[in-house]
Amino acid sequence: MFTKILIANRGEIACRVIKTARKMGIATVAVYSDADRDAVHVEMADEAVHIGPSPAAQSYLIPEKIIAACKETGAQAVHPGYGFLSERAAFCEALEAEGITFIGPKPKAIRAMGDKIESKKFANAAKVSTVPGWLGVIENADHAEKIAGEIGYPVMIKASAGGGGKGMRIAWSQSEVRDGFDRARSEAKSSFGDDRVFIEKFVVDPRHIEIQVLADAHGNALYLGERECSIQRRNQKVAEEAPSPFLDAETRKAMGEQSVALARAVDYQSVGTVEFIVDKDKNFYFLEMNTRLQVEHPVTELVTGIDLVEQMIRVAAGEKLALKQSDIKLNGWAVESRLYAEDPYRNFLPSIGRLTRYRPPDEGQFGDVVIRNDTGVTEGSEISMFYDPMLAKLCTWAPTRLEAIDAMSEALDSFVVDGIEHNIPFLAALMQHPRWREGQISTAFISEEYPDGFAPVVPNNDEKAVLASIATAVELLRRDRLDRLGGRLAPHSGALKRDWVVKIGDDYLLASILEGMISIPMEIDLSIEGGKALTVASDWRPGDLIWRGKVGKRKVTAQIRPVANGFRIAWKGMSVTARAMLPRTAELERLMPEKIAPDTSKLLLCPMPGLVVSISVAEGQEVKAGETLAVVEAMKMENVLRAERDLVISKLNARPGDSLAVDAVIMEFA
């Protein structure tokens, strides 16, 4: 067994590998760029080596720097994580030439399966069911248009060396092929250093289901069940689960056996994932094989009890698998939510900045529920524009699917992230969505259910009553605390005020306290809008970010943040401003004029912090609705900004290469 390994990666996955290596008694070496000098994985490792500037192309993607770090520290093996150099056969061969072990498959398997074009050809030759498509070199946009027309729309344009949703575009018509081809090639080159793309038929309403395989160097191979990864945005997975709520035992077995046969055919030796798209009739088609550890591997670990990173290390060290196919049992249900630094209310655009608060829920087993959080950041970490925006992978396990989803819902409600925008509100809303809870999903779920983008969930009357009850209880404790401050001239002491008005958004609700007193813990009975009595019980204290308690029979975990004259309450995807007032204050508050937002209709604002890739117009140019105005890149994704109406460009305020803050003015319209 190795005594020291180097992790050629960063962030969450580097921390994940370090944890298992530490458990196995193996010393670890981290590598880091300028942007990651103070990163969590650098602190966790036994040693750390600086490998260059912040851009990945100048640090994490340079094999020579990784090999030099191995020689400097005496690392015997390299774990590549995912992304970066994890599927580069040349990197694997360069390590072998230096006598350093690659913790992953051999170059033959990487070449056969890691390249999406070659893997399609190999699968076809092996008689594996594949989606119709063009697997040869695509010369230019004209060639792409011709191929797409022959295959039939819609088509998927994909980077050959891609992953994580980078370098992927769906074209529904001929007009979308050219732009999709250019964007996919550009993203592929910047993310992977390889601009080759291929085109295949896009199966409408498919489910994305993948099989986890594990094989050693002694001819043993097996599958560890499946993961459902159909909840995707821009072809990037957002939430995953194991097992799939869609598969039956027969289909699972068939997919698993086919995946193992494919792995054996290329002498696969490590952990790998065979991805399929599955139609409504449970017909499955080979999509690709990822010759690395998957981002979503924790859900498989939770339902099988097998540490996949440990298995990778043991296989790389030459050990035989200690498991047989008959040993693999799927126990319970696991769900994973990917927490991203992105603004769900602005079409999920990337967000950068410092994590002023970062407080995940407690990990461990709590009754029948397990909570796990794989992360690579901590409070005070800087989220930069150079890397993937993922902050953490929050996972829950429970005996049944709905129990796991409910556990995830509560865990998300108690996950505190401040300083940047993040997608927790969307994930929390997803956990309540009927289609998700019923398992009636496809890869088109997000585009179908949120065609106009995500907006805060609007509370129904029962939920408004819960929010108003919390707001009233919070305000009572806040005022009581103020009354206890020394030197106050006119405290609110005296008899408990029974009648309140709670403003939730634009609604004014009457709250009447029926019984109870101000104390910590608090338990009061109140009525909202004359409804039945609700008992509100909690040990919340002023200043706590999480309100936990009961409102009536409902268990509630919500986040409380002070805002001007009130609180912002976040709960199950809802985010409302709440203010509890005495009736006279509410009467006067209704008379206050509303602030009118500034008119920005003649400005193109930068939707997120990023780098201007190109400006497609000139001053004085007339532009039609839908035409491209500019392209802005952030966190390895290119975002095309288009004209929403016919207009004339009056002034350009930015140039290609400029780094812009959110809402910076890119150009002005006449």
User: How many E-type strands?
Assistant: 40
Percent helix among the residues? 25-40%
| Overall residue-averaged pLDDT value | 93
How would you describe the shape? globular
Judged by helices, strands and strand pairing, the structural class is: alpha+beta
The order of strands across the largest sheet is 14-13-10-11-12-15-23-21-20
End-to-end Cα distance: 69 Å
How many DSSP helices? 17
Biggest sheet character:
9 strands, antiparallel
- Low-confidence blocks of residues: none
Strand-residue proportion: 25-35%
Radius of gyration using CA atoms only: 27 Å
Keywords: ATP-binding, Biotin, Ligase, Lipid degradation, Lipid metabolism, Magnesium, Manganese, Metal-binding, Nucleotide-binding
Domain ATP-grasp: 120-317
Domain Biotin carboxylation: 1-451
Organism: Rhizobium loti
Give short descriptive properties of this protein.
manganese; BC-like_N; PreATP-grasp_dom_sf; nine-stranded antiparallel β-sheet; 34% strand; eight-stranded antiparallel barrel; 670 residues; alpha+beta; 40 strands
Short description:
With 670 residues, this protein is an alpha+beta fold. It has 17 helices and 40 strands. The chain has a nine-stranded antiparallel sheet with strand order 14-13-10-11-12-15-23-21-20. Strands 25-26-27-28-29-30-31-32 form an eight-stranded antiparallel beta barrel.
Note down, in words, how this protein is organized.
This protein is α+β, with helices and mostly antiparallel strands and 670 residues long. The protein is 27% helix and 34% strand. The chain is built from 17 helices and 40 strands. Strands 14-13-10-11-12-15-23-21-20 form a 9-stranded antiparallel sheet. The chain has an 8-stranded antiparallel barrel with strand order 25-26-27-28-29-30-31-32. The longest helix is centred in the last third of the chain and has 23 residues, at 461-483. The relative contact order is 0.08. It catalyses: propanoyl-CoA + hydrogencarbonate + ATP = (S)-methylmalonyl-CoA + ADP + phosphate + H(+). This is propionyl-CoA carboxylase. Its EC number is 6.4.1.3.
